[in-house]
Amino acid sequence: MRLAPHSNSDGYRVFMEPHEYETIIECASRDRAEIAFRLGGECSLRKKEVLEVTLDKIQKSRSPGVEIFFMRVWGKETRKENSKKPRKPWVPNSLRGDIERYSKRKNIRPSSPLYPNSKGTLQNDMVDARELAANKTGDDDFLEVTFHDFRRYFATNLFYRKGINIEFIAALGGWEDPDYMKEEYLDPYFDDVIERHLAQKGVLDIETDHQSDFEKVLSKMNELENRIDTLDRTLAADTIEVGSEELETEESDGDHSLEEFL
User: Fold this and answer.
1) How far apart are CA 68 and CA 91, in angstroms?
2) Residues 43 and 89 sit within 8 Å (Cβ to Cβ)
3) 3-state DSSP helix/strand/coil percent for the chain, to nearest 5?
């Protein structure tokens, strides 16, 4: 976990690693809190946007052949407090399934909010989870986590660990200015990110599970070579089969002519 001071206010911007994100999710004291935290960390929803989520706002894409689900939300424009605009965050299938099961268990209508419409309730759930996480791990940095840090996890995880294009992340998260997002929401200085980058450039002097760029090229070449070999064998087998069928046809035609002659 990395803490970076805010440039214009007290407190810290907190950047979590995946296992730390999972810890605070596990420490959610209520199902509603777990759903809310995941909407922040996996859909990049702001606190106020979470309070407006309803099940019927989560819909499968209408584009032909597209199987993923999106959520339509109205969120504020970056740096514009009183201005809103619509956006379509992607909703992972695992989260969508959990939301559906939660709604069914709590008898929440599709058009009703999933979460009690109170920032105070969400804040209390956040405080409970971070205190439990700090006690569980002995790491007091968890006490600095705010709900907005889930958006930082969303951006940093997708960009540095998953390799998603920064413009896509900005669009999904509602950031108009990718440069502003990079400044406030991205942090590359994690041990796993550094190790992966060094391994990809082939400069590590230890063995890891990460492939260098050169190793990736070799792997792709080997994969292509195997596909070509498979295709060659398939074509050869088809050629032999066609030849056998033609031979059988010729023999059959010859027998037929002999019968007619007799």
Assistant:
1) 8
2) yes
3) 60, 10, 30
Q: Which residues contact 101 (CB under 8 A, 6 or more apart)?
A: none
Dihedral sign, CA of 76, 78, 83, 89?
Answer: negative
Are 208 and 199 in contact by the 8 Å Cβ rule? The answer is yes
d(CA 140, CA 130): 9
2-201 belongs to which CATH class?
mainly alpha
Q: Sign (positive/negative) of CA torsion 234, 238, 239, 241?
A: positive
Tokens representing residue 59 in the block: 């819909």
Digit-coded pLDDT (tens) for 164-213: 999 999 999 999 888 889 888 998 788 888 888 788 777 776 665 655 55
Q: Quick: pLDDT tens for 119-144.
A: 789 999 999 999 999 999 999 999 99
Distance, CA of 222 to CA of 209 (rounded, Å): 18
| Consecutive H or E run containing 235 | helix 213-261
Cβ neighbours of residue 86 closer than 8 Å, sequence gap 6 or more? 72, 73, 74, 75
Query: 0.85 cut: is pTM over it?
Result: no
